[in-house]
Amino acid sequence: MKPPLVPLATLLGRELRNVKVEKPFVKFGQAALAKKGEDYFLIKPDCERVPGNPETSFSVFAIFDGHNGISAAIFAKENLLGNVLSAIPQGINREEWLQALPRALVAGFVKTDIEFQQKGMYSFLFHHTCILFYFITLSFVLMTGETSGTTVTFVVIDEWTVTVASVGDSRCILDTQGGVVSLLTVDHRLEENAEERERVTASGGEVGRLNVFGGNEVGPLRCWPGGLCLSRSIGDTDVGEFIVPIPHVKQVKLSNSGGRLVIASDGIWDALSSDMAAKSCRGLPAELAAKLVVKEALRSRGLKDDTTCLVVDIIPSDQPVLPSTPMKKQNALSSFLFGKRSQTSTNKTKNKLSAVGVVEELFEEGSAILAERLGKDFPMNTNSGLFKCAVCQVDQPPAEGLTVNSGPFFSPASKPWEGPFLCTNCRKKKDAMEGKSLRSAVLLTNLEQRMVCDRYLVS
Ligand SMILES: [Zn+2]
């Protein structure tokens, strides 16, 4: 039997005529099993672009997979959304809001990381008065988890537009009506991401495996100092600053036939491929689907890690559940018409699936260079004569921060800054992330390094 061509024609017609399609329903389910208790998640189905106006609603779903403690995961869960929203200009329309979102996500991730770092450093410096206290404090910091870090996969759904920002290795996949599964995130694992290995090495880090007795190398590739297997995260204040919080961001627009997102920590993805996860729960309501994905991961690998899964269905309002039957031929045609292959040259991994389907790709950028992510056009506050920092949004006199095209005075031995205004604090962070400044925390002795390494042997 020939596949139905009418829905595609309708879809095409609507796209071409730009007919307003009714808002979709967003239905979701969550399931989790804890091994270490370091996974956290955020579900905010009722956010509003304009407070008090339900017409401007959008939803946020996020997973935070913490390591070496829970502080960073909790801090990010509590602060990231607010920091992202504060970086979006006020009084703009929906289209402008969606366009501003990728940049605001970058600013919000970096701001959250700086705030967490400062929180840890204050307690560190407060106690750090002599060498004895230094070691006592380091132990204290390690025990209290102030040096913890977290992956973040942060999803914003506004009608049919899905924007995903991620650091680390918690993935978000999209299963469309065509039965094609695409990856909306990039894995920031040193083992699998050659481009990130190059970046970390160029910024002053060393990438290698752990040496155990007898000189044998074991485990995945890690970066030193610190011994982390991830190349991006929020937190990890005891690790080199080249472990950056700058997220990969991808924005897609679904067709009005909708789609399903599966957002999960690596406890799922170490056990299941994207296809397996999508197939294991097709045709089931979101709540049940999330439980089934976790069960399937457990069946194939056992409970080796924290395992958290969010399933989010974006469904046409006239259609209460997602149909489970793939429409392969229709999908192939529509991906030719709408989809384009992932164009970014950065952060390709062997696991990356080509982003085709009944999906329009609006934006994708994964660069770890702040100037490439923030643009240049952050305006001066004309009332006060102050510049607003593009990352943390504080106002500062131009002379104290870093303005567009600041020369070597601000960044010795580097090309002029081509990004927007940054305050003194955020400029320091930018330089550190690019390997242009040494942090005291990086100057660890061999003993301290080994103490740090020991923690990662268990993670
Ligand atoms: Zn700032």
Automatic annotation (TrEMBL):
<dbReference type="Pfam" id="PF00481">
    <property type="entry name" value="PP2C"/>
</dbReference>
<keyword id="KW-0464">Manganese</keyword>
<protein>
    <recommendedName>
        <fullName>protein-serine/threonine phosphatase</fullName>
        <ecNumber>3.1.3.16</ecNumber>
    </recommendedName>
</protein>
<dbReference type="InterPro" id="IPR001932">
    <property type="entry name" value="PPM-type_phosphatase-like_dom"/>
</dbReference>
<dbReference type="GO" id="GO:0046872">
    <property type="term" value="F:metal ion binding"/>
</dbReference>
<feature type="domain" description="PPM-type phosphatase">
    <location>
        <begin position="20"/>
        <end position="314"/>
    </location>
</feature>
<keyword id="KW-0378">Hydrolase</keyword>
<keyword id="KW-0479">Metal-binding</keyword>
<comment type="similarity">
    <text>Belongs to the PP2C family.</text>
</comment>
<dbReference type="GO" id="GO:0004722">
    <property type="term" value="F:protein serine/threonine phosphatase activity"/>
</dbReference>
<keyword id="KW-0460">Magnesium</keyword>
<keyword id="KW-0904">Protein phosphatase</keyword>
<dbReference type="InterPro" id="IPR015655">
    <property type="entry name" value="PP2C"/>
</dbReference>
<dbReference type="InterPro" id="IPR036457">
    <property type="entry name" value="PPM-type-like_dom_sf"/>
</dbReference>
